[in-house]
């Protein structure tokens, strides 16, 4: 029922007087147009959603894929390193190998008598890990200098084919560079290419030798439950390093990196190493030996076919 206008004025009169409403605001049409859309259609890009189609779009993944082929995307060398390795494992290993490297180049005589071969291996390993750091996602020490360190160490590793005094002197310079880097001084060298050229960084044979060293230490550290508990840090670190090596060995430019069977073996080594890491982290010490055994079996199969 429609009520007369007087009824609408009763509340105002009873309140002691007539309340006069404020006049409506006066907007400049040009200013309003610069803030608001004239039509809802202008505010929506593309087709307007239909109510019946709401919620039928693709869902967001609830977990990150662990498959390395998916991680690699366009294989730009970035996300392929997502194998569960900790940055501290890289940092600690660089420190360890650096000390071993320095201890092996104390005199020219020892260097000439075979020490140059050990130095070449250590330089190759160090160049490889700095190349990984160069592409590693997340915070890790020496990342700003990683590309430069990668290049100078790889170059000297290639030159260390004999134990001459010239080679010895070059190797000693690399030891000084590493000392500067670890102490925080950085490397005084020309700017390096940000991309890794794996064909000039590492060779498969020395990397396989290095992988055997890591595996031997890992096997010793997991010989029994008590030892595994005491060596948990070493177990975790070596598992990380072996997992990363499996990725390194399949980088473009390295031997057999385009062989599907070889890549499958390298991936299997990485997966087994990740199982070791998970077992030690989750305190499933009884599973360690079988996981380490899988690494050994994979390495044996690879050496048999590709050594």
TrEMBL record:
Region Disordered, annotated ranges: 47-78
Pfam families with a match to the protein in the record: Cytochrom_C_2
Native organism taxonomy: Bacteria, Pseudomonadati, Planctomycetota, Planctomycetia, Planctomycetales
Name of the protein this chain belongs to: Cytochrome C
Record-linked SUPFAM superfamilies: Cytochromes
Protein species of origin: Crateriforma conspicua
Domain of life according to the entry: Bacteria
GO biological process: electron transport chain
GO molecular function annotation: electron transfer activity; heme binding; iron ion binding
PROSITE patterns associated with the record: CYTCII (PS51009)
């Amino acid at each position: 029922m429609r009520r007369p206008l007087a009824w609408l004025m009763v509340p105002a009169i009873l309140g002691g007087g007539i309340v006069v409403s404020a006049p409506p605001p006066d907007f400049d049409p040009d200013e309003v147009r610069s803030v608001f859309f004239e039509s809802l259609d202008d505010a929506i890009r593309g087709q307007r959603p239909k109510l019946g189609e709401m919620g039928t779009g693709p869902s967001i993944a609830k977990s990150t894929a662990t498959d390395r082929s998916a991680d690699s995307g366009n294989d730009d060398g970035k996300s392929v390193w997502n194998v569960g390795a900790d940055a501290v494992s890289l940092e600690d290993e660089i420190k360890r190998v650096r000390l071993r490297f320095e201890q092996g180049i104390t005199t020219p005589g020892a260097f000439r008598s075979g020490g140059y071969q050990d130095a070449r291996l250590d330089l190759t390993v160090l160049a490889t890990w700095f190349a990984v750091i160069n592409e590693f996602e997340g915070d890790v020490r020496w990342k700003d200098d990683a590309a430069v360190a990668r290049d100078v160490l790889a170059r000297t590793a290639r030159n260390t084919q004999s134990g001459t005094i010239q080679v010895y002197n070059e190797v000693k310079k690399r030891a000084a560079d590493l000392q500067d880097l670890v102490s925080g001084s950085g490397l005084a060298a020309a700017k390096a290419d940000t991309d890794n050229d794996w064909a000039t960084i590492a060779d498969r044979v020395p990397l396989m030798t290095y992988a055997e060293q890591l595996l031997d230490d890992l096997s010793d550290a997991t010989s029994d439950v008590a030892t595994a508990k005491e060596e948990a840090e070493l177990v975790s670190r070596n598992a990380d390093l072996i997992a990363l090596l499996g990725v390194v060995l399949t980088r473009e430019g390295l031997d057999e990196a385009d062989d599907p069977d070889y890549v499958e073996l390298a991936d299997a080594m990485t997966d087994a190493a990740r199982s070791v890491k998970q077992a030690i982290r989750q305190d499933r010490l009884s599973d360690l030996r079988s996981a380490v055994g899988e690494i050994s079996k994979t390495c044996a199969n690879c050496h048999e076919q590709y050594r």
